[in-house]
Amino acid sequence: MEKQNLFDVIPSKTAFWLGVGTAILGVGTLGFILLATCMFRGSCSVSDLSLGSNSAKPIAVNNPSPSADPNAAPAPTGTVPAVSNDDHMKGNKNAPVTLIEYSDFQCPYCGAFEPTLDTVMAKYKDQVRLVYRHFPLSFHPNALPAANAAECASEQGKFWEFHDALFANQDSENDAYYVKLATDNKLNLGKFNDCVKTQKYLKKIQDQAAAGGAAGINGTPGTFVIGKDGSATPITGAVPEATLSAAIDKALGK
């Protein structure tokens, strides 16, 4: 007697839904592994979804060639790009130590790292300045649009307002929220909407991410502590304040 295949006795509709359930279970398992990996490490990495695909690469294609800021702390040539007038900076522009953060507006660990950065900026006052650079990961679909919206807001002097609001409301990142932020900050909506729609700052964002990758960034948040002698200390992930402070103290020669 010929043996029957399982799918010969299961109705076709039942077999279809069985297949769908199996596929969903597989995707859910992959998502759990990704989340557990990020939670264990405290950062989101470009390799977290590289299981046979290229979908986890940072959204980056070109290397930048920024004009040097005469007030910038020196950085090792070919490693961390020097601070330029195109960078977003807060703190004393002549501070002896520079924190260069490569970040992703949708990354939960980048959001968790923001209070730590605020703490060290208040602690060290004029001794440290902070530079924010983009490193949107391709498996964070809202990261690139959010970065572009923040750049569009910067045209009207509101980058840091958008920066703070985006990290504080990561679950709300979408086109409607960007318009709400623009309205709340009293931006020229016509100019802002045109900028967002045309992805005006796509190349700048891509260039920053590519340069960050070339400098060794492979996940977010990724930070360099640049000393007054030009030395660069990499800080990977959302580290505790004590860890970041120790690197700053070293850069200050303490």
Characterize the structure shown:
Helices cover 46% and strands 13% of the residues. It is an alpha+beta fold. It folds into two domains: 6-41; 88-251, Glutaredoxin. The strands form two sheets. It has a five-stranded mixed sheet. A two-stranded antiparallel sheet has the order 1-5. A hairpin with a 5-residue loop joins strand 6 (222-226) and strand 7. Helix 4 packs antiparallel against helix 5 and helix 4 (143-154) runs antiparallel to helix 7 (189-197). The termini are far apart.
CATH architecture of the largest domain: 3-Layer(aba) Sandwich
Give me the secondary-structure category. Answer: alpha+beta
CATH homologous superfamily placement of the largest domain: Glutaredoxin
**Main beta sheet strand tally, sense and closure:** 5 strands, mixed
* Unreliably modeled segments: 1-10, 12-16, 22-37, 47-78
Primary descriptors:
Glutaredoxin, alpha+beta, 254 residues, five-stranded mixed β-sheet, 2 domains, 9 helices
SSE layout and pairing:
Elements: H1 6-9, H2 12-41, E1 44-45, E2 88-91, E3 97-103, H3 108-124, E4 128-134, H4 143-154, H5 159-168, H6 175-184, H7 189-197, H8 202-215, E5 219-220, E6 222-226, E7 232-236, H9 241-251
Parallel strand pairs: 3-4
Antiparallel strand pairs: 1-5, 2-4, 3-6, 6-7
Helix pairs in contact: 4-5, 4-7
Brief overview, please?
Helix 4 runs antiparallel to helix 5 and helix 4 runs antiparallel to helix 7. The chain is globular. It folds into two domains: 36 residues; 164 residues, 3-Layer(aba) Sandwich (Glutaredoxin).
